């Protein structure tokens, strides 16, 4: 079962400092221009890393994965829907879970708006979970999402891409995740994987990212990083304990809260 069982009041951890510097316009512009220079360095570094990411060698996908979808059984090759690139969200929804991981749902909340744009850049998006299709469909309907979400319950896709763990996969409490042995509290983990299909129909795994790498799907975080209070998260093991399913936020303003059990832990 999903370990998220409580819905405590949202926490706000960092009040706006009353003694924050306030300066004249010319000083503000000077400070802003200094920061802009650093922001440009970051943009150029991000471009450099993106080029290195695209230059990574690929690995051929030899296994014939078949998934349960609302339109019947479909192979990995079918998921591309005529495009060359496939972007997969490894969504934490295990068999028998009452609901999907709140953090994975936070990621998925950003998906419907971008899917049409991805399609016009030769990219198909799909979410994959180990839960049976009926359980996926029930939760998807509750959340009101439109993106494609399919089940890997009858294949080894999740295990092969190191986002699902059985008891025998644990060694002294640790599992192989994010390219190393790490302690992870659940049987399912978040991730994003990318595949390419060439003109001959061969499929290649080109990239996967886990842990905090999945923040690439969390556009809300990019907006929070612009505002004075930032992400307003505490320094504990699981920083995303403020996140709720979008139909579970309280109506009133945030208040102090007790800790919530995490469904996933996004380490660096």
Structure in words:
The structure is a single chain. The chain is α+β, with helices and mostly antiparallel strands and about 270 residues long. The chain is built from six helices and ten strands. The model is unreliable at about 1-10 and about 250-260 (pLDDT under 50).
Summarize the structure.
This protein is of the alpha+beta class. It is built from 6 helices and 10 strands, in the order H-E-E-E-E-H-H-E-H-E-H-E-E-E-E-H.
Unreliable residue runs: 1-11, 252-261
Helical coverage, percent range: 25-40%
CATH architecture of the largest domain: 3-Layer(aba) Sandwich
Question: CATH homologous superfamily of the largest domain - what is it?
Answer: Glutaredoxin
pLDDT averaged residue by residue: 89
The secondary structure category is alpha+beta
What is the H/E string? HEEEEHHEHEHEEEEH
How many separate domains make up the residues?
A: 2
Shape: globular
Give the biggest beta sheet. Answer: 6 strands, mixed
Assembly state (oligomeric): single chain
Q: Can you count the beta strands?
A: 10
The strands making up the biggest β-sheet line up spatially as 1-10-9-4-5-6
Gyration radius (Cα, Å) is 20 Å
Instruction: Indicate the CATH topology of the largest domain.
Output: Glutaredoxin
Q: What is the terminal-to-terminal distance?
A: 25 Å
Figure out the total of helices: 6
């Amino acid at each position: 079962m999903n370990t998220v069982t409580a819905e405590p009041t949202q926490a706000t951890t960092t009040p706006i400092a009353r003694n924050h510097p306030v300066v004249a316009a010319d000083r503000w512009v000077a400070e802003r221009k200094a920061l802009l220079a650093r922001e440009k360095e970051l943009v150029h570094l991000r471009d450099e890393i993106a080029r290195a990411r695209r230059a990574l060698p690929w690995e051929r996908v030899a296994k014939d994965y078949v998934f349960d979808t609302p339109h019947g059984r479909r192979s990995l090759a079918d998921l591309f829907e005529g495009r060359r690139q496939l972007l997969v969200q490894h969504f934490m929804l295990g068999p028998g879970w009452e609901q999907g991981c709140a953090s994975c749902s936070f990621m998925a909340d950003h998906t419907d708006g971008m899917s049409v744009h991805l399609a016009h850049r030769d990219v198909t998006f799909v979410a994959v979970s180990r839960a049976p299709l009926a359980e996926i469909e029930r939760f998807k309907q509750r959340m009101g999402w439109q993106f494609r979400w399919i089940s890997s319950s009858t294949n080894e896709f999740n295990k092969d891409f190191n986002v699902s763990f059985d008891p025998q996969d644990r060694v002294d409490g640790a599992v192989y995740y994010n390219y190393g042995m790490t302690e992870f509290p659940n049987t399912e983990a978040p991730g994003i994987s990318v595949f390419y299909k060439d003109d001959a129909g061969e499929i290649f795994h080109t990239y996967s990212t886990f842990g905090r790498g999945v923040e690439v799907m969390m556009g809300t975080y990019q907006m929070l990083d612009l505002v004075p209070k930032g992400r307003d998260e505490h320094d504990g093991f699981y920083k995303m304990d403020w996140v709720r399913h979008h139909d579970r936020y309280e109506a009133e303003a945030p208040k102090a809260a007790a800790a919530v059990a995490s469904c996933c832990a996004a380490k660096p």
